[in-house]
Amino acid sequence: MLDPKLLRNQPEQIAAQLGRRGFELDVEQLTRLEAERKQLQVQTQQLQNERNSSAKAVGQAKTKGEDIQPLLQAVSELKLRLEAAETRLNELQDELNSIAMGIPNIPHEDVPDGTSEDDNMEIRCWGELPEFDFEPRDHVELGAALGQMDFETAAKITGSRFSLLSGPLARLHRALIQFMLDLHTGEHGYTETYVPYLVNADSLRGTGQLPKFEQDLFRLVGEHEYYLTPTAEVPVTNILRDTIIDADEMPRKYVAHTPCFRSEAGSYGKDTRGMIRQHQFEKVEMVQAVHPHESWQVLDQLVNHAEIVLQKLELPYRVVALCAGDLGFSAAKTYDLEVWLPGQQKYREISSCSNFGDFQARRIKARWRDPDTGKPELVHTLNGSGLAVGRTLVAIMENCQQKNGTFRVPEELLKYMGGVEVVEPG
User: Fold this and answer.
1) How far apart (Å, rounded) are the C-alpha atoms in residues 84 and 79?
2) Residue 45 neighbours by CB distance under 10 Å
3) Quick one: residue 338, left, alpha or beta (phi over 0 = left, psi -120 to 50 = alpha)?
């Protein structure tokens, strides 16, 4: 959520900045509503003062034995006018709040211009693209040949865009989660966190998924208004909701593994084959809450933590800066990590690392106490996938495949695989 003071005082400047990301801010509507709010605020205060003066006059008239009926009538009329003004003021404030909740974050000045992913900017590449003396298969063909990746049975159990893994492939999926958690807690200093997989609407509003993106969520039908979490970002970031963190407890660094559930609304026909875009998938997520003046440095650190996962697994990738038109709703700046998939002959997103500034913190009232002033101030929040587990599995299968349809297990994962060095059929 943007600073209301900026929306009130600099609507034209904010509109210009939001225009970079293709969002059209209705400045005329905002200005009109704000002018009416200010007028009603003054009117309400005047009526309150008049009511208090009239009530005092009634008491004085009573003491003197004077006729108080005209004064009581005036107080009654003031009360009705005040109630009407307060009601309209509350309606206006609700309307302004609703508008503010639907306004995305302002892109950072370093974010490149552009309208879609085609305008994203490649920052750097890492690793050599693998060369094969055979036609590389994609993960669907490899998984079927191994007999350990089954989409038909998953569709029978649930529906489309679900998968069933078995044998060494399922174990490798689990090994990736363990490896990522061990790396981020052991080398990068994150606190491992176990969180609920169901979240309430307040949590989703806090991180920006609601109110605009409800169609992308799975909402449960029942006594409680719960949603399946679309990413660990939601429950982990909301750990900080309505808290004030002491300066010596900053930064807060959390890592969590969760399943993630997304309806993939609007993506019909895209990536229907395989594990790239599913309704249920696993992710290891890094979340940080930091001092505002440190957040841009921490974003680079967060990206590096995600890169190290890919480097240790020897998977070639590139880092891409998202253009303004491709930013997520809450992000001020985002870097995507895209891993090379030989079966598709293209890079595909495997991690997204974002700095949200104080956008989420303002929504959830996450603050730290400045020791110099003693006053609470908003933190900056960041998160990044470290990594998407299913897509990492896909990348290993395709980059480490061999001519006979098997694939090698990366050295970093061998200690989790119980002696399995090559995933073979059976």
Assistant:
1) 9
2) 11
3) beta
| Residues 89/37, Cβ–Cβ less than 8 Å | yes
- Whether omega before 387 lies within 30 degrees of 0, making that bond cis, reads yes
Backbone angles phi, psi at 231, to 5 degrees: -170, 150
- Domains, the chain: 4-101 (1.10.287.40), 117-423 (3.30.930.10)
CB atoms within 10 A of CB 39: 13
Cis, bond preceding 11 (omega within 30 deg of 0)? no
Task: Indicate the residue type of 388.
Answer: A
Return the percent helix, strand and coil in the chain, to nearest 5: 45, 20, 35
Type of residue numbered 263: S
**Among 302, 33, 102, CA closest to 190:** 302
Token pair for residue 224?
């409680």
Question: Global pTM?
Answer: 0.93
CB 307 within 8 A of CB 293: no
Token reading at 219: 């909402």
In tens digits, the chain (426 residues) has pLDDT values of 999 999 999 999 999 999 999 999 999 999 999 999 999 999 999 998 888 887 787 778 777 777 777 778 877 888 899 999 999 999 999 999 999 999 999 999 999 999 999 999 999 999 999 999 999 999 999 999 999 999 999 999 999 999 999 999 999 999 999 999 999 999 999 999 999 999 999 999 999 999 999 999 999 998 999 999 999 999 999 999 999 999 999 999 999 999 999 998 766 677 778 999 999 999 999 999 999 999 999 999 999 999 999 999 999 999 999 999 999 999 999 999 999 999 999 999 999 999 999 999 999 999 999 999 999 999 999 999 999 999 999 999 999 999 999 999 999 999 999 999 999 997
What are the residue numbers of the active site? Answer: 262, 277, 349, 352, 391
